[in-house]
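Tutorial handout. Part one gives the primary structure; part two gives the three-dimensional structure as tokens.
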Amino acid sequence: MVPAAFCWVLVQDIETIRSKRFENQYGPLFEGLKLDNKWYLTYYVVFILRRLLFFGIAIMKTDTDSAFLQIMLLMYMNIFMIIYTAGLNPMKVRSVNRVLLANELLISFTTIQMLLFTDWVSDEEDKFFFGWHISFYILVMVVFNFYFILKSAARTIYLLGVKYWRRFKHRFWPEKVEEPEIQEVPMVEPQFFHIVPNEAEMQEMAAITEE
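Part two.
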């Protein structure tokens, strides 16, 4: 059902996918992906197909002498995913693309070391030693991913705490809004100015009067 949903999004027109209405209804099916073209939308489809192939390889019946074929198929699949992820960079956030690529590299290194547990290494003590080595890679991968998971979870918890603390504070200790003081503006009485003519103007006015 889920792979069919991803494929259904992939066959939609790119303008339809970019629309706000389509994003509100089916946004989780392409969340975090770039929407410049449809090549980015193939990431989740390839992601699902890889899991199905991994399941098929795991249950594939092989003879003891040809069991290494399962490991070789996993190695080729991991190499394809490294090239695909590094060349496509499907996510909008650059740091997420780097995390995806780092995970693919760690998975590929771990898969390569699985060859050391086949008949290519006959000494059981050597296999035991290589077991510690592959366990170290798995531990690094788990810690690497848990760092980002815990970081995101801590940020989410902090934001939720701030949100609900503000609601609680606003409900039980509402802030008092001080009304601004109205200042009275003093009335300014109109002033009339009497212009007094100077001496020259007075003499000119007197001469006009005598005439």
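Part three, for discussion. The chain has two domains: 2-120, 124-175. The two ends are 117 Å apart (CA to CA).
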